[in-house]
Each structure stands twice: as structure tokens, then as C-alpha cells.
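ESCALATION

Customer reports they have been waiting on this structure for their group meeting. Please prioritize. Original submission:
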Amino acid sequence: MTDVPGKKGSIATSAQTKKRQSNRRTAIVDIGSNSIRLVVYQGPARVPATLFNEKVMAGLGRELSTTGAIGEDSMALAVRGLKRFHRLCTDMEVDSILTFATAAVRDASNGDDLLKAARKIGYDVAVLKGEEEAELAALGVVSGMPDATGIVGDLGGGSLELAMIRQGKVLDRYSFPLGVFRVADLRAKNTDGLKAQIRKMLKKTGWEKQAQQLPFYLVGGSWRSLARLDMFDSNYPLPVIHNYEMEPRRAQRLVRRLAQLNRDKLKSVPGLSASRIPTLNDAAWLLSMLVRYLNSSKMVVSAYGVREGLLFQNITKHEAAHDPLLLATEDAGAAQARFPANSKLLGEWISEIFCDDPAEWHRIRQAACNLGDVAWRANPNFRAERGLEIGLHGNWVGITGSEREMLGQALFTSFGGGNYIFPGGGQLADEQATKRAICWGLAMRLGQRLSGGTRNPLEQTQIRKSGKKLELTVASDLIDLYGDAVAKRHANLANMMGLEPVMTGV
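Update from on-call: job pushed to the front of the queue and completed.
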């Protein structure tokens, strides 16, 4: 693996460790060719929460293809943004700042001027090589989709990075001078020549056979903006960009669609940054060429990229092996639990009656149990809606749209939403999956009522299927816990599963 800056201390930190690892705040300043962004993270190293996120659309690479240099206005905007970000990091008491620059600074004749200015402010900037940038982008995808296999494409303002990944491992890495700013200039001069250049570029990778019918993972703000437009056009019911999938033919459709839309109409698309609008057409055209030549099976959007790849690279193999969905939901659930977290125990308690679930559902069910206490502090009339919102719209990775619906449905039901599909639900998960999620929620609801959210009752009781019965076995000294409220929830779950509720004392 390439020794990417940031590993083994090659990106310097701006402060000493002040807090325990779980509470450390890490800031990343990404000096890209289109935007400069500050993101501040805190929490488990594998899936840290985002405390702050801001970008400055400096456009450092806008004039590279014509002048070979960063423009004066872009330089001034970048320096102002970097000063603001550094002050914010001080006020937020971050423990470390990791700073890197990509193609514009790497290629510009006056790139050193920006580096000098950044160092004067207090940054220690690592200028990434193209292959390093490609590897970090690929690691970012792997961080959010651990078993990903396919081609990662990271489109910036000044360059395009491509990497092949297989089962979470990064293989080949390439960088090409085809960022959105350069594509715009090259298309204006000679579109046919640019097509030939792209073919030559892909031939250099040697992927003619290996890349056929593999997913193409989209990294970068321009391509995420295209996905927002596709979501809008297709009336996609879940406004979560990570793991959003598109058929390859939709790339060419987006090219045609953009030709029909003016700036005002594009500004009305939810979540689409106005600053990205000028580059969308070129981004869509390049994407359509790539997925066509690679014969991609589908396009998959990754919200994670170089920044998250840098974080992922700096954790241990043990930390990297953790399931990001389960770790994040466990952390979120523990922070809001009424009592010391019982999420794993609750998951084990209900698991026996769902042992015939498909293997890929087991982790979604456990994620729901991890979040089993998140809505208790909400107004009782809105607990179901609160649980739904957290499950459906939480900042989770390692989860598809249909799985989000199942997670949200389980929590909606668990917090009192009834035996019904939540409003607007059932559009991504099929009928069988939705019904199963309702059953998970009812089982969680039973376990939480029986135990009051504590450990002892769950440790001394058991629920299982026995023929056509749903049998709840209770230790003799806990028989009094089987009150009317528990009996009603037991019966509700049994009826939903087509079984007869039976309570047995031992």
C-alpha cells in the first residue's frame, strides 16, 4: 500500500492529545481544486461523528488549463477561508489538524505561494500525489461500504482519480488530468479528441476485461450533485445520498436533462449546491463516457471520500474490521439509553424467533436494537416519529435504502407506531421485509416493556417459537413481571407472526 501522508505521523498535528481517544476531535482541511473544506470529527475512530462541516468554493483549479496558475481572486479567497478555518479549530479545541492539498496546488506554477501562506497561518500541508489521492478515495469508499468491489472514480476540479477495489481491498490506482474545469476547456476545443483521450486513459489501466460489469462508485461533490438531480427527477423517497444507486444509462439521461434545465430550475433541486451548477454538465458528460467504456453494471454514490479514507487509513486493523453501521448505532444508542446499554442483550433476546431471517438482515435487526432507547426522552405522542427519523435519516453507512426503511420501520413500531407501515414507507423495502421489520419492532417493544429497559429480566427470560406457539418462558421469581401490559404486547407480536401466545413459568 502506498505510504500516504497522514500515516505514521507524516501529516503533523497542531495540538497535543488532550482527551481520551473516544472524545478526540480531529479536523481535516481539504484544499481541493474546486473547494476548500473543513470537517471536524469526534467519536469512535471507525465512524466518528461530524461536528462541523464548511466549504469555500475557491475554484483554485479554474484557470489552470489556460494560465497554468491559481488565479489571484481564487488565491485570496482560499487564504481568507484557511484563516477562518484555523480560528474555528482553535475555538473548537480540536486535538489535531490534518491538512492536504490535491491537483490544483500540485500542478499550479504558483502552488507554492498558497502553501507558504497556509504554513504562515499554522497549517502543515501535505501535497498528495495523484496515486495517493486515488488510494485515499478508494479507502473512503471501503470505509463506508466494507465489502465494496468495483471501480472508484473521484472527480475533482483538477483531476480524476480511478482505483479498483475488491472485497474491501485497494488494488490499482491511477490519476488523470481530467477534473471538471479541464474537461470543460477540452470539450470546448475538441470533443472527439477528448473522447479519444479518455479511451487511451482507460486503456492505460489495463482494465478492459477486469472492469466489465462492475459497479462504478462515485466520489466527489460534482457527481454527488448529479445524484441529487437524479433523485429529484425519479421522485426517490429517501433524501440520503450515500449508497444511492443509478443504472448506467441514467448518466446519459442526466446529460440530456441538464441541457433542458436553466440555473433557476437547478437551484430548486433539494440538496443541490448552487456553486456546483456550472460544472454539472461536464461532470455528467465525463461520467457517461466512463460508465459506457467500462461497461459498468451500476453507479453507486459514496458520501465518503479522501477525507474519510485518511481517517480510515490511520486506524488499526482491529478497528477497521468493525461493522460501521453496528458501531455507529451502538454509540448513538448508548448516549441516549435510560440505563446502561442493553442493546446487545436485547438483540440476543429477540434473535431466536428470527433465526430464519436472511443473513443480511441480522445486522439491521441488531442496529435497531442498538437504537432501542433513542426516543424515550421525546414527547410520548411523538416517540414513534422520533424513532423513525433517527433510523431512516441517521448518518449511517454500510446500509442500503431498503435497509434504512427496515431500520426506521422497526423503530417506528417499537416506539408505539402500531402494526402499520409508517407514513410514506414501503417504497424501497418489499412487503416481506416491511412485515419482518414490524415484527422486530413488536419484539423489541415486548422486551423493553417486560424488562423496563434493565438487564436482569432479559437474562432470566426467553422467547421462542415452539410449533404454532410463541412461548415466553419466565423464571418463577419473575412471574410478577408478566403483567397486563406485557401480556398485551406478547399477544400482539404473536398475532402478527401468526402464532399463539403462551407464557410458561419455570
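Sent to customer with the following note: The mean pLDDT is 92.
Escalation resolved.
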